[in-house]
Write a structure and sequence with these properties.
With about 150 residues, this protein is an all-alpha fold. The protein has a single domain, classed as nmb1532 protein domain like (Four Helix Bundle (Hemerythrin (Met), subunit A), Up-down Bundle), CATH 1.20.120.520. Helix content is about 85%, strand content about 0%. Helix 1 crosses helix 5. It is elongated. The protein starts with a helix and ends with a helix. The relative contact order is 0.18.
Length: about 150
């Protein structure tokens, strides 16, 4: 799977979790906490893969790669801060809903920019084989993080 497809697949996974959280009832405390934990896990691995493997390539390949990557890293940092704040909150605390709502907004904004601006430029700047190679490296790294 090429790197762009892998990134978009991760985005879809997280969006699905966001929707489950949003649809969970106000009394679904355990479910919401469980979903929040999974979101944190998914986004942590995803952002590490982007920062360690994809963003260095973008810096080299894209004309304004450094600028795009710096903005993306700022967005990752904001999301990580929100996730850190969410970590200790129990499922029955209304603050969890508030923090998750903030995280959802941050991540949806980031995904939109990435999918509409960064990823198309990356596809234009790399060959199919290069994207496949990057995707393989990202999949391997993802497997190692999951182990």
């Amino acid at each position: 799977m090429d790197a762009i497809k892998l990134i978009k697949q991760d985005h879809e996974t997280v969006e699905g979790l966001f929707k489950k959280f949003e649809e969970a009832g106000s009394k679904a405390h355990k479910t919401k906490r469980s979903i929040a934990d999974r979101v944190i896990e998914e986004l942590t691995v995803h952002s590490e893969l982007e920062e360690q493997l994809m963003y260095p390539v973008m810096r080299q390949v894209l004309d304004n790669g450094e600028e795009l990557v710096q903005e993306a890293i700022v967005e990752h940092t904001e999301a990580k801060k929100t996730m850190d704040e969410m970590s200790g909150i129990s499922g029955d605390d209304p603050l969890l809903d508030a923090k998750m709502s903030a995280l959802i907004g941050e991540v949806r904004h980031h995904v939109k920019e990435e999918e509409e601006e960064m990823l198309p430029k990356l596809r234009d700047g790399m060959s199919r084989q290069e994207l496949e190679d990057l995707g393989r490296r990202m999949q391997e790294a993802k497997k190692q993080k999951a182990a």
